[in-house]
Records
---
Amino acid sequence: MRKTFKPLLGIGYNQFINVVKLIHGEPINYPSFSSMTLDKDDVIVAKKWLRNKKTWYDCNTVEEYEKKFALWNGSKHAFAFMGGRIALSACIYALGLKEGDEVILPGYTCVVVPNAFHFAGIKTIYCDIELDTYGLDASQLECKITPKTKAVLLHHLYGLVCRDYEIILEIANKYGLKVIEDCAHSTGAEYKGKKVGNFGDTSFYSSEQSKIFTTIQGGMAVTNDDKIAEKMKKYYNNAMFPDDEWIDKQLHNVIYNYYAYKHRKRWFLGDFMKLLYKKKLLISTTKEEECGIKPTYYGKRMPSPIASIGLNQLEKIDYYNEQRRYIAKKWDKWCEKNGYKKPMVIPYSIPVYLRYPIIVEEEKKQDTSWALRELGVQVGIWFVSNIHPSAWPVTGCINADKSVKQCVNFPCLLS
Ligand SMILES: *Cc1c(COP(=O)(O)O)cnc(C)c1O
């Protein structure tokens, strides 16, 4: 019956189902990103900037955001861009990687990562991951190195510090390879008392809407090397700001995302907000990017209104990360009780648990309704392919293939 009502009721469908559920005393469906760190105070910041467009292209707030992030992260230099992927492009440029070079990266990643290399003419070689932390498996790394290999990209997926961190750094050092750290999931994770991203040559962080903290779209490139920073600054200075239509949309997305995914009454408000903000909604990865095509607006740096949201988010990032760690402990207990393997926390590391990943039976990834029924949560299923979400062929990555089929992730924030 619910199916036939859907097209008829359109926008009011969720409200209708939820009202029926309320009447029957059943739990209602909360639309969820399970990672939404936007609150009312972020909405206030967004509205303030929407009222005053005069200082949108003034750089002071951006500089303040970069300085604060660098300080918080324990890094020497930080540059704010309009996405983690753009920050990665800045890293690639700053490291002097050139057309025809090869980079080794995990065969379990987001499509925008290989894209950034391809846009620079660099060949991507995929290496398998381990199943303890879903990081690059160091034991498979050396055999992928050729005379053309110039860099290796490691990641700390789901907020876990990667198992072979130091070994990868050692191998890279031995072969003279540059190391880029993908910290898109792990802003705030620590290893041996330092934040991750400070161990390789350069690293990047993401503040996309599903990440550790959010500016809807956004990213930060970081380095502790003055020479690399000098080159990064060149990329940064050449990058343009997004136009005011884009900034306007992004600020409206802050408001929309709060009401649709965080507000207490979102089960009721969400659909209306979607209708109201229909023309303003932004998507993180377009269909063309999924096909490996460079969007025309690619490569922008961050303007002040967005940096202002970032500054507000930085105030709360430690609070939310503590919440993630606290909820992860509950999932640890659940794993122990139900016979699933807990994700590994490597010695001397403090993860941040963007999500809590586990390997489950294939059927449980194909149909995740069990989690809502049994646990009251919506599980994430990314990554659904080796080069998520694209179906690009990757061969010889057995553990990555297994994760694609069997790794689901639990939310780690109270929703
Ligand atoms: C999200 C993500 C990125 C890119 O970040 P954006 O800010 O969306 O460009 C890079 N790597 C991984 C693993 C990601 O999940």
---
Amino acid sequence: MSSLDERLIARMLHHRTGNLEPGQPVQATLSPASTYFLPGTPNAKHQYGRWSNPTWEVLEDALAILEDAPVAIFPSGMAAIASVFMTHLGTGDRVLLPSDGYYTTRVLVEKYLAPHGVEVELRATADYATQDLSGFKLVFIETPSNPGLDICDVAEVAGRAKAAGALVVADNTTMTPLGQRPLNLGADLVVASDTKALNGHSDVLFGHVAARDAGLLEPVRDWRKFVGAIPGPFEAWLVHRGLESFEVRYERMTSTAAILAERFSAHPAIRSVAYPGLATHPGHEIAKRQMTRFGTIIGLTFADAAAADRFIENTSLIVPATSFGGVHSSAERRARWGDKVAEGYVRLSVGCEPTEALWEEINAVLDALA
Ligand SMILES: *Cc1c(COP(=O)(O)O)cnc(C)c1O
């Protein structure tokens, strides 16, 4: 981790402690308020619960330090993504989306924006390098793509997109700010599902949008206020709590993932391993330039669906589940959702289990499969 990231994490952990009065709780307080004391001319900081909330603010302050940019929080990753599309796309606009990215993002645009005259173009993440970016209003990047873990060069794509007049939006869910900082690489907006590693405890759906240009974030905040798809204060409080141990969890998860990826590559039960940190990954050189960690997700291709299912079902330290980024390692065969991946492709989310205990258990199952 760079010393900048370390300073941001330390500041984030203490973002409230400098202002405490004697006797106040050290941990953030939960304010489940819909109404606020509001006599006379309404100019109080908080006026109504759909517009603002003290617990939201605590979390937005913490996330803004982590992102190094102002943040608006949302009740899910999709709510965050939708806010950007709904406020920055209109009739006649063209949007470029990854054909191999998070499926629901494509459905959202195709089902709800295309009928209103937004033109959608799909391109595989690895092919963004050769895509002509002229004429797009918005270029949406997801690298590594979920679930295939393909890579595109954020700085290169963002540079060309912006020269062509497009807004660049990066879904940074798979990496988090601790693994990759798209805003530093030229993206205008970052969207993320905090349901994954950032909250990390598999108990909240959540999301956020970050942008350094206030003119880009303001409409997103207004959207939240007028549409009313707002985060619950308790969920915001839980994410703030999760955030405080995020760096420690991410450290364990990414270092275990890097070790496991090497060992998987050497195991005969596995046909191929997709992990941006491996020299065999086609995007490895780009990954080294733009990622500070190589992430917590590993793509494993087994001989067939049956072998993949046996791996998932027989490894007791791996929970069969969709989603990723939780403290418990989990895995699923992505073809079960119709993703365009091999039948034997498993997306493994590496959790916080002690590395060798996890490997010992995985290795025994792999040996039985080989
Ligand atoms: C999970 C995920 C989302 C959606 O987030 P939710 O919190 O489930 O709404 C968006 N993008 C990516 C890359 C994801 O993995």
